[in-house]
Amino acid sequence: MRKTLFAITAAASVTTACLVLTACGPGGGGTDSHPSASASTAGQPSATASSPAATPGNGSGTPSSDPGAVQSALALGVPSRTVGTKLVGILEITPTTVVYTKEGDGTTARFGTFAVITTKDASLTANAADEEPASAGGTKGGWRWIAANGQSVAEGNGSASKVRVSGYDGVGRIEPGTSQLRSEVFDLTPDQAKGGGTLVYTDATGAENRWKIPAVDSGPQAADVKKRLAS
User: CA nearest 155: which of 176, 172, 134?
Assistant: First the structure.
């Protein structure tokens, strides 16, 4: 009788111990509500993923967020398709010519040099399209010049807004299947003009289109633009 009771007691003790081990071990209820440290950080963005892309700034040396910073700049004369203002239509924009001059259309550059760039804008869809209007600094719409020293200059700054290039002054909506010749003028300091620059256009979606602009007069309309600026 004593042997029987002893066996029953021993079996109960083993069962209890197994239950305790099961509750505390892997897969037991004790770990469901307490995820490990590695599990708690899964899915969170890394410092690298959350860091904004660096882009040339305004000369302060401080990088800023720029969605187009990784885009390679196209060469002068290469077209790029952009979304028209108010998200209507598609414009194909082709910068064709650049001319540097101290004076143009009877106006002297306030900062030293005008960079005059002509473009051909073509409407490619069934809806009339237009360029996105310029915004402050050109960062949310319109045109800007990024100098080799990193400074960003908006179209029409300084005395540039007074310069009109006849024959390259198209404005307004461009009808389907047609094109216009336009021009963008920047008033640059010697440092901003030195070495050429990068022409940037930001369309209605916030996408940036970039072109590398040579440091000397270039393009098929260069002679014609100079003549018109001098008249």
Answer: 134
